[in-house]
């Protein structure tokens, strides 16, 4: 995925940054971070489009399952009509039709449930990825804010020392 590649590049940039002695802090140009954030923003809509496609595909699968169930039910009704010519045959036909209807409804329900589970699994994966990316971005922003704060502290300290 493009998002992972961009995050890997950002991580590499962070690893190459100048370290502040005696701390675990780093100094990084803000343009570098903003460049990666902009690329992430441009990439994330593709993931969202994929989620929308999955949603549409799920709906299509559900509609296909309903059509298939209707066809099965119609076939069962036709079989019932064909077998209804005699009373004994009619009783058997009614029993068979009830079984066929139960099977058709069960199969339709199973197909529908499978489609729902599939769509939910895919959306959960996308949601997890988006949450992970969001956490990484929040951590990166927090580190930037801390670096800016530390830099300002050093500037203030430096300017006070010059004044003294």
Fold and architecture overview:
This protein is an all-alpha fold and 164 residues long. Helices cover 89% and strands 2% of the residues. The protein contains 3 helices and 2 strands, in the order αββαα. It has helices at residues 2-16, 30-83, 87-163; strands spanning 18-19, 26-27. Strands 1-2 form a two-stranded antiparallel sheet. β1 (18-19) and β2 (26-27) form a beta hairpin. α1 (2-16) runs antiparallel to α2 (30-83) and α2 packs antiparallel against α3 (87-163). 2% of the residues are buried.
Outline of this structure?
By secondary structure, the chain is mainly α. It has helices spanning 2-16, 30-83, 87-163; strands at residues 18-19, 26-27.
| Number of helical elements | 3
Kindly estimate the percentage of residues that lie in beta strands according to DSSP: under 5%
Helices and strands: which structural class?
Answer: mainly alpha
Shape: rod-shaped
Contiguous uncertain segments of 5+ residues? none
Q: What is the strand arrangement across the widest sheet?
A: 1-2
SSE string: HEEHH
Mean pLDDT: 86
Quick one: biggest sheet?
2 strands, antiparallel
Radius of gyration: 31 Å
DSSP E strands, number: 2
What percent of residues adopt helix (DSSP H or I)?
A: over 70%
- End-to-end Cα distance, whole Å, is 55 Å
């Amino acid at each position: 995925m493009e998002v992972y590649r961009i995050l890997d590049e950002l991580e590499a940039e962070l690893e190459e940054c100048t370290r502040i002695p005696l701390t675990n802090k780093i100094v990084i140009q803000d343009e570098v971070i903003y460049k990666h954030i902009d690329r992430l923003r441009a990439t994330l809509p593709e993931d969202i489009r994929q989620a929308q496609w999955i949603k549409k595909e799920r709906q299509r699968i559900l509609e296909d399952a309903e059509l298939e169930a209707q066809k099965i039910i119609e076939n069962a009704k036709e079989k019932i009509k064909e077998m209804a010519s005699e009373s004994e045959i009619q009783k058997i036909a009614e029993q068979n039709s009830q079984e066929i209807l139960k099977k058709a409804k069960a199969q339709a329900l199973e197909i529908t449930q499978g489609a729902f589970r599939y769509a939910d699994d895919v959306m959960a994966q996308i949601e997890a990825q988006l949450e992970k990316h969001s956490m990484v971005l929040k951590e990166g922003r927090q580190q930037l804010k801390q670096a800016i704060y530390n830099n300002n502290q050093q500037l203030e300290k430096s300017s006070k020392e010059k004044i003294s």
